[in-house]
Give the backbone structure.
Amino acid sequence: MKKIQHIINGQATSGISTQTQSVYNPATGEQTADLVLGGLDEVSLAVENSKQAFQSWSTTAPAKRAKVMFNMRQLLIDNADLVAETISKEHGKTHDDALGEVTRALEVVEYACNITENLKGDFNSDVGPGIDTHSNRQALGVVAGITPFNFPSMVPLWMIPMALACGNTFILKPSERDPSSANLIHDLFAKAGLPAGVLNVVHGGKDAVDAILDHKDIQAVSFVGSTPIAEYVYTRGCASGKRVQALGGAKNHMIIMPDADIDQAADALMGAGFGSAGERCMAISMAVPVGQETADKLIEKLVPMINNMKVGPYTQKGMEMGPVITKDAQTRIEGLITQGETEGAKVVVDGRNFKIDGHEEGYWVGATLLDHVKPDMSVYKQEIFGPVLSVLRADNYQQAVDLINAHEYGNGTAIFTRDGDAARDFATKIQVGMVGINVPIPVPVAYHSFGGWKRSIFGAHGIYGPEAVHFYTKLKTITTRWPTGIRKGAQFNFPTLD
Ligand code: NAD
């Protein structure tokens, strides 16, 4: 059985922990690897190594660090199929969807190529007599990233390129459910010319996470995952004096106004609801049609589209949706559909007990459509993170907006309409971090930053883009007096510009 190990100082190692966990192919249910699980010892080893690597990496010219990113860009392009295959084998998403993940990761690498521009400081001459002030941003030191299963390449690459380009060294603790992508990313960076120890990978679960959060020599932690763990990571990381950004879960609504193009809205809901089996933090899980007529028209369009979806393993060409990540996830999602039904939702298309011939042991859940969902139901309150699209019928636009604003999550949202007034009002008043106007999955491009509001994020900074430069650096401001000839005698009052 293949063994997936940590990578510290460029070397694969099992560390000293003897704990392991099985990794599976979700399409077949077969075990594909044994993953070593690290804890305090392995994290401490990685931190020592990362601290050493920081000495020379942080003083490497930003233009030279950018060269590694340029090389990485080309390697990601050349190896896109391999990266996608590695994702799909452990995650289950279709090959084309995995290629999309690689493309969005590539954008962040491309943005990091521009780091010389982004690290430029500010300068003012003559802020006082013979006095100049300049400010610059310096690397923090050793920083860490803890990532979820649903984008095993893209989410680590939301963090690593920016953290490294800013001059930090990085320890990645990827999801234990699809860990191979992390090692592949490491290997590609090594080929791109990244010195050993600048990027280390420590595998594991809670023990490894806790060791990262408590380690005094880790300066900052980026986390992406579910809200309860994000809150835990934020609280514990801040308590040990770290800078923390922790991005959490979501419940993303899409309002469909009566004037919307219903075909366009239905297409958008199919991709945003069922792409990647609904396991995206920006998936639309709630359709909110305004008015009964809009709702009836929408459901009439969606039902045949859902029934005709091509569901199957990533190895089969032309599939639109794969399995969910684990047997537990399958059981949890099916349980929530049943709970929704019990609480009064109508199961219009039922994805429970879904089977694929020849892949009976895979973790399949068919695309599911629930209608007449109400705000007090568990399927409304909880993030399902599976291929379940719920319809909550709103009487009017204001009711739809109030509903979204009252929800605990605020990651993404969208409105489909032809009415500019409604669109502008929505963009202004909605309490959500990423908003789409006739765009169902408004994931910002790499030169903007990604981040939700409310309980979808803990911490002040969004991830990647300009916010990442601020998160991964600290500001230093230097005030200089030249020439030395100016002499005013001892000054005991607070310094002013006179
Ligand atoms: P998760 O919270 O279970 O795991 C995320 C990371 O936390 C993993 O590395 C895992 O090992 C670690 N972890 C899990 N339990 C822990 C514990 N008790 N103590 C310490 N560490 C622990 O999330 P997941 O199931 O891998 O990913 C899905 C979730 O991630 C969804 O809620 C989804 O919305 C969210 N997500 C959010 C974004 C975003 O940008 N906001 C992006 C992707 C995914």
